[in-house]
Amino acid sequence: MRFPALLIAPLLVAMPLQAGAGEIWVTNEKDDTISVIDTVRLEVVRTIPTGERPRGITFNSDRSRVYICASDSDTVQVMDPATGKILHDLPSGEDPEQFVLAPDDRHLWIANEDDAVTTVVDVETRQVVAQVNVGIEPEGMAVSPDGKIVITTSETTNMAHWIDTETKKIFANTLVDARPRHAEFAKGGAELWVSSEIGGTITVFDVATQAEKAKIRFEITGIKADLVQPVGFEFTPDGKTAFVALGPANHVAVIDADTFKVRTYVLVGRRVWHLAFSPDHKQLFSTNGVSGDVTIIDIASLEPVKSIKVGRFPWGAAARP
Amino acid sequence: MAESFRDRKGLWLAAAIFCWASSATAEIAVPMIYMRQEIQPPPVLSNLDPIPKDRGIAGAEVALADTKTTGRFMGHDYSLALVSVEPGGDFLAAARKALTSSKILFLDAPPEGILAVADLAEAKGALLFNVSSGAKRLRHVDCRMNVFHTMAEDAMRTDALMQALKARRWVRTVLIVGPKPEDRTFADTLRTSAQKFGIDILVEKDWTFNTDLRRAAGREIPLFTQDFPDHDVLLIADEADDFGRYVQDNTWLPRPVAGSEGLRGEGWAPVLEQWAAVQLQNRFEKAAGREMGSRDYAAWAAVRTIGEAVTRTNSGDPVVLREFILSAKFALDGFKGRSLSYRDWDGQLRQPMAVVNARALVELAPLDGYLHQTNEMDTLGLDRPESACTAFEG
Prior knowledge:
Chain A is mainly beta. Chain A contains one helix and 28 strands.
């Protein structure tokens, strides 16, 4: 870590974060656990066992359930976040990696990485509703705010597949750069952003026409271009700023979402993977896969304030108020 | 002689599960041919690890299935045929015939065979991929403008190994050289790489045994290695995979072995799992029923190169594809953590190299600290100033 630990303690005293209460739940891919971080104390307060190779993690809207992709158990686990008990498993298809929960809180759209399909599961009936054939190695999943469009990105086919949630059919396929990892709708659903890990870019699409609108590139002094590999990203609630995890570049990029220009880069741990805001959006938590820790970025100052040791290969992150 | 890939069961299965929602636009047909000159491998001591009959081919098949998926969405129709010429058969005549139906050939042949095909009048303007030979001369004095190399140059393997040894400060080595011509050539490559990265080869010995070492290794190898001066690592040049396996753990001094045996530089190995490599390994094992090796990877990368170029240019024209493949826009996801591209001075696929043992990935070269003015991956193999290749200029 480039920022010395010694500097951080006085910083914390001088500049209290004044964060609201909350938790960040982090899946540890190689430990089969979740580390729960208290956003005020900034330490791991619980460690919860999961199925094998937990990756994608998401809460339902009232936070009464947490869904976990247990990739190597070939299932999506449903957990009671209060007790940490697994309530039941959902049929997920093979090797679930990422998913999104539709705004109806009922349909979970799951990327099955080894199977080239997207599986739709009804979380109430616990039945598979549909399977959609997509490209090779589907991973990134996004749902539009109105719930009408779901996106699956496929890492080897290098495409974003646009799925009509009503018909459960693909209505458009758009090429992106190599190894698309993550997708998010932005600007109230007017834009779709897709990160390409090996291509080193984010492609921004106009949702109405599915036409490419912008291409965001990254450049960090002292780091070779091919090691700048955008993966997970998150928007501030006002939609004006995007934070992008840059993988082995060990930085998070801060992007002006209106001009598509990079404002700055924040140094975090090794191989930064996914991001989650604290419930009050004053802090951003990055999972650093190789260093096995989570870095906390103060949003006001855009400074890394602390890194917390979690389990082996932290992957996904989700906030719980 | 010609065997359609459609006859292969695994591929049909892969094709059958696709049920596409998108309608195809203008169809572009992309016929490709995998040309193999079969060779009789030399006899080796051990019956373990036979050479797979579909070495290379299985990699091309997996890449074809991957590429077809994108093709269905894009309206690009890829096909791959196999032409396998028996030992002593007329490879050149077969290649001439193949070039009448496709200008994209994957050549699995010794260097002479590759050069003979490249120099055919019919091969002018074709896209040929060397998927089998690591010979330096194909990237050097005998390079051809119509030949790309997805197989790593042998020096890329040994440079990667020497970077790993240097990082450990295991700089004192000794070398055992096998009797076959390819062992001699590989020993040369080891010597050059050792010098490049500051590794000393203190003493060399020729391998002269003709007994069945499977019974005698425990008695003979300690004696054979007893007069070596003290060293950090024992290097072995045994490219036919003949005796190397009996040297490890039978040496006079307890030392690791490296080179053709033990710690090795490879374009691909079954122990790769990071950088999503496990996805490719799984797809390969499901399709081929065995583990994926460097030859399979070279063929895989060649087919994927065509797929990537056709997808991005929306063209099947070899001239358009060649220009794109050599441009800065080309970026292939090779499951090794960095995007792969081609060296525009000799057509070699620029790629990280795995330094592996039987059980794990030890290092991925280039290692941290090996800097280069343009691309760190060019610390592996023939760099622009070293290559005598001029065919790619202009």
